TrEMBL record:
Belongs to the major facilitator superfamily. Nitrate/nitrite porter (TC 2.A.1.8) family. GO terms for molecular function: nitrate transmembrane transporter activity; nitrite transmembrane transporter activity. This is Nitrate/nitrite transporter. It is a multi-pass membrane protein. GO terms for biological process: nitrate assimilation. It comes from the Bacteria. The chain crosses the membrane at residues 21-45, 57-79, 86-105, 151-175, 181-202, 241-266, 272-291, 312-329, 335-360, 367-388, 400-421. Residues 21-427 form the Major facilitator superfamily (MFS) profile domain. Keywords: Cell membrane, Membrane, Nitrate assimilation, Transmembrane, Transmembrane helix, Transport. The keyword Transmembrane applies. It is found in: Cell membrane; Membrane.
Amino acid sequence: MNTHKATTINLFSLKTPNMKAFHMTWMAFFLCFFGWFGIAPLMVMVRDELHLTKGEIGNIMIASVSITIFARILIGYLCDRVGPRIMYAALLILGAFPVMLIGLSNDYTSFLLFRLTIGVIGASFVVTQFHTSAMFAPNIIGTANAVTAGWGNLGGGVTQLVMPLIFAGFVGLGYSNSESWRLAMVVPGIALLIMGILYFLYTTDTPEGNLADLKKKDPNFTLKKKQSQVSFAEIFKDYRVWVLAFCYGACFGIEITIDNIAALYFKDKFNLSLEAAGLIAASFGMMNLFARALGGMLSDKIGNTKGLNGRVLVLGACILLEGIGILIFSNMEVLVFSVISMIGFALFVKMSNGATYAVVPFVNKNAVGSVAGIVGAGGNIGAVLMGFLFKSESLTYNDAFSIIGYCVLGIAVLAFTIRFVTSTEKKQVEFTAVESLA
């Protein structure tokens, strides 16, 4: 079948279905992050009103990221059967309701259940990568996936800045603090609803049209390329898959953990206002504007001269520098140095995200989706494990960051153990498409 996948990215065009999907995917992913972590910068108010303990806040953090592990597997399965257009629209519209309704929480249990349900929105990454993979050719698909993922992740930073301002706006209108945080969460919910409708109306599953229409013409049509059969046992036995899962847990896991805890951390440690703490927390997420793509681009550049093992060196170096940065951050007691060190390690967190998925497609070209799925789940599992550190009553937040820093250093050493044999590398280097479903 003749396809019309884009071979370039024209950022200022919406004329083609490829570029419509490009912009709609990152904007949808951005708003999903806004809904997913919208409550995070307002947790100070929630904690005081619902009288939450440190352990309960930790459980809420874990709930927000744990359900995503299972949701990603299900959403990836459904994307191939109903198409990314319908899947994303449904996820956006259905996900909007728990975001808006979390304001009905009146105790720890009800809040925890709403936070757990909202975590399903995190599966939007699957649809984002699936849709761009269907729209862009191998020579540009890696960049397309990195940019849409990175710009979407910006939502995790912007929400830290915007949600306290929305909260303050409702307070300024005369509402109480209790009413204001509840009303503030309606805003991202409405945005998700609107985006869901727009996504359904203005995107197509492929450059050629929607899946349902294409299946009418060809009953055997599928959005996935047919690949040689590879058993899950073969994938599970490849140590590189699990090392990459650890790597993604050490970078993306860190990212969504910081999105959850940063505003609360700076508010309590340095006695800042909600708005000031949100602004500082936002600087962490704003690094996604360029840093994730930078990691992928650096890996491509080194890979072109040093081969696949060169990509491994980039990944290991990024994670190593990330770990060092986290350890420095964990020892900062002065606000300005704490902020500087956070931004420093944030750069390497985002670069590590991009560098990880610059290696993933080359592990097994006949099972890219399966490998990417395991690695992607590793990111959320990492966040879950870190959540247990932050809920511990015997550890301060600085202690937790210090432990995480040492763990990241250990994972950096693991990353350097990934190897590609010369014969495999020669074949794999020809396979440049990043067809991830993570």
